[in-house]
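Exercise 7 asks you to align residues with tokens for two separate proteins.
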Amino acid sequence: MVRIQLLLALLLVNGAALAAPSFSGKGHAEIRQQERAGNEAGDDLGQRYEGLLEGQINNGRLKTNAILMGRYRSQYDDAEDKVRDEMRSDAELRELYLTWSADRFEIRAGKQQQAWGRADYFRIVDVWNPLDLREFLLPYFDNYSLGRQPRGMLITDYFGDTWEQQLIIAAQRKTTRLAPAGSDFAANGMPATLPAVNEEGSGVDIGWRGKIFWSGNDIELYAFHGYHADEMLTFENAQLVREQPERDMVGTSLARPMGDWVLRTDAAHYWREGRQTASGIEDSSRTSALLGFDRVENEWTWNLQLATTHWYDEESNHDDVWESSVSVEKNWSRYRLTTGLLWLVNWVDDSSQLWRATVNYEFLPQWKVGFAAVSFDGKDDTQFGQFDNQDRLMLTLRRDFSL
């Protein structure tokens, strides 16, 4: 994949129009003090520091984008070696890709992100970038692009008179990043030591998206063949190994105005979808769909969603999964104040919930202070309930800047 990217970069540079390059950039620096809510046991959450720098170089039809990010979490200074190495700090070149634009074509190559679908929080057709779940969904709520993992991809977009079409090829496999055992958001049942990764074979993800605007409807169609973002456990030569099962999907999404509201839908059928069972990976299939409504009025933003998934394997006791979300945000622009409330519900056998309340105040240009409270509720074996002892309060000071 690296050789392909380098070759493409040379071709793009040779074909780019000669022009004086220009540079633009932005970023932020942030410090967050975290405290456990109530009398919950656990290590002191301490401080979380984050810095991000994003830059773009324009040279005619060619653009180069890069994002650098670093994080440090004082909570894990005295943790065991494996947890400390995984959780204490990050320093990475998150994104680096080239974009070449023509009248009807755009080609992007490199480490990047590509979001599919209309859903927030629920990934019905969004298959390309695995999540980073080491801090569960908390970074994703702050900025969904920082809760995802960029990966090496070649993306070609064609802008026709009626249809827009996109082709994506990703030869670099990428998996969901999980919290290690012993950290705050390690999932229940996570082994202290995971088995080796099954290195046999190499796989390529390939996908197509078509987009059309018709009679007031913004419609997209999707097709994907590749591998699941989640590693699952299976037996290989009488040994337990981690493997990414294959998956095949066709899907669609729609957005259209309905009076003061905007209707959003995602729907997908995975006719081949691996599923973790006690005996290994089961080759199954599923159908997922989402219905959402948005409204923006008088500085109020409302977002309502309902999602469902039906599995077709007969032996499962969890054939149907229901999920929903309610998000309300109020922007007090006169006072440079924004308040928000998010409520997520997951239902399999028992319901579990996540509540998140936020207040953000811009006390000076590009300076913000924010407060957030996060609460989990449900039984120990549910999606949110397993983190019932991770309720927390967070006070954040942030400085944005432009270059």
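Second protein for Exercise 7:
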Amino acid sequence: YGLRFTDALAVGRYLNRHLPRLEALTLRFHQAFFKDSSLPQEVLDAASSNITALRSNTCFRIEDGSFFGWEGCFDQSGCCDGNCSHVWNYAQTLAFLFPKLEQSMRRNEFLLETDEKGAMRFRARAKLQGPAWDLPPAIDGQCGSILRLYREWLISQDQGFLDELGEKALLALDFAISYWDEGQDGVPDSRQHNTYDIDFYGSNPLSAGMFLLALRAGEEIAALLGQGERAEGYRALYEKGREKAEALLWNGEYFIQKLTDVDAHHYQHGEGCLSDQLFGQFLAHVTGLGHLLDENKTRQAMKSIYTYNFRRDLSDHENVQRCFALGDEGGLLLCTWPRGGRPRFPFVYSNEVWTGIEYQVAACLIWEGLVEEGLDIVKTARARHDGFKRNPFNEVECGHHYARSLSSWGLVLACSGFGINPKDGAPHISPRLSQEDFRCFYSTGREWGVCTQRREPDGSLKQRFKTLYTADS
């Protein structure tokens, strides 16, 4: 965009010429999102306030239009470069509001940052002429990127986009199978680098869920590319992995990490109740892929996360790491050990509160029918960012305007049950709130507007989608 205008005067002339159109669009969006909606205020607040991260210094575009983002921003510089795949995994706002920008991230990941064997560097530097990232691939980032490619196709319905990147995504999936699933049983069990900036060992729910998610996405991508036999292979491994993960990791209340000696490696979680244990399920709900694991176990695990990890008051909570919530504030802890078994050196962020995880957990709770529990977490997070204690438009993790906070758009999707039919691209909703008179903003990237569901005089439920903007308008 530095080349779009010759100078500041050209910007001023453009604004003067287009101001009526720009103002009208802004007011139309405001009306649709805030006023023509029956969503809870805290959901509207969380989803809209974090849009600002996209126009903050966290994000930028380069000469050819490619989109890049840091993880967040420090006062004088960006923090953690290269569209970090395991952090941007959580973000949903860009995909549904500005899908072309999100698509450019997938092109970077698969065309430039995935090598000939299928290993993906989780920080994109090639297009920025930077040195290649040299840490091992991240299991959650690489598996999540495969899912996000399917998401981008689902939103855009652009077969050309899928044809361009699909084969490279399946190569990345084949690498994931050979690299992380040593037993070839559908459950990762080797060294697994992840978003907590450490390596998990053995079998654990975060890695297992993301791996199963990638297999399901790979099945869909292969089928769309006309590779039925390959799709069947991914499905077979998924079924095997699902069965083993449920048998191996389920403790009756939630999913745990299985290690012979949890202290043999630093920074594990072992018997702990991990808030991210069903992060893969969050992404599966976003893309309409259904339940990755048993539905009843999934619901119980989500309920356990709320029961054990959500605190209304952190006054007695001890945290020697970074403090994003403290004192009489509430928040969702990343991990707790309600049954004991806390490792001597658990992963370093386990006592922290991250809004990006709070929002994805809240959204998943809502999808699983635990609506009040999900909204409780959102209300508590927004109470911390009330404009007095903290900036409501700046959610900090590693830096300001942290990208993980963009998981908040998932709350809109969860409350509305918004989805896109993969066969014809038609949007649909399945509200988790009032079925009788529901109103909500929707966006497919190709269009946006207001969707409604109302009870008709004959007793039937009628859905309507009123388009207020299309990409061609």
